[in-house]
């Protein structure tokens, strides 16, 4: 069963450009990963510090492999101290 992920990221004030640039670097390599069906980055209109990834994966194991990928480690290192909050919600499509 496909897994839907909502990743909610808030940048620290004044760090939103850095966070945006680093998040954008994740898109191409992630879309090329095995099991990635959808990986879309969004930014809130009312708060430029607020980003979302809407993701769909073939299954949870492939998503977990994604989370261990080198480009995720690079993102985490590049944005250390620049992210105010990060929440991941695992979901399933019901309709």
Q: What keyword list fits this structure?
A:
single chain; alpha+beta; 95 residues; globular; Alpha-Beta Plaits; 4-stranded antiparallel sheet; 3 helices
Proper CATH architecture of the domain at 23-81? 2-Layer Sandwich
Overall helicity: 25-40%
Low-confidence stretches: none
Strand order of the largest sheet: 2-3-1-4
How far is it from the N-terminal to the C-terminal residue, by CA? 13 Å
Rg on CA atoms, Å: 13 Å
Using the coordinates above, name the CATH class of the domain at 23-81.
Alpha Beta
CATH topology of the domain at 23-81: Alpha-Beta Plaits
Element string (H = helix, E = strand): EHEEHHE
GO molecular function, one term: monooxygenase activity
Protein name: Putative monooxygenase
Pfam family, one: ABM
Keywords: Monooxygenase, Oxidoreductase
Polypeptide structure, described:
This protein has a domain of 59 residues: Alpha-Beta Plaits. The chain has a 4-stranded antiparallel beta sheet. With 95 residues, it is of the alpha+beta class. Strand 2 and strand 3 form a beta hairpin. The longest helix has 16 residues. It has 3 helices and 4 strands; from the N terminus they run E-H-E-E-H-H-E.
List the helices and strands and how they pair.
Layout: E1 3-11, H1 16-31, E2 36-43, E3 50-57, H2 60-67, H3 70-78, E4 83-91
Antiparallel strand pairs: 1-3, 1-4, 2-3
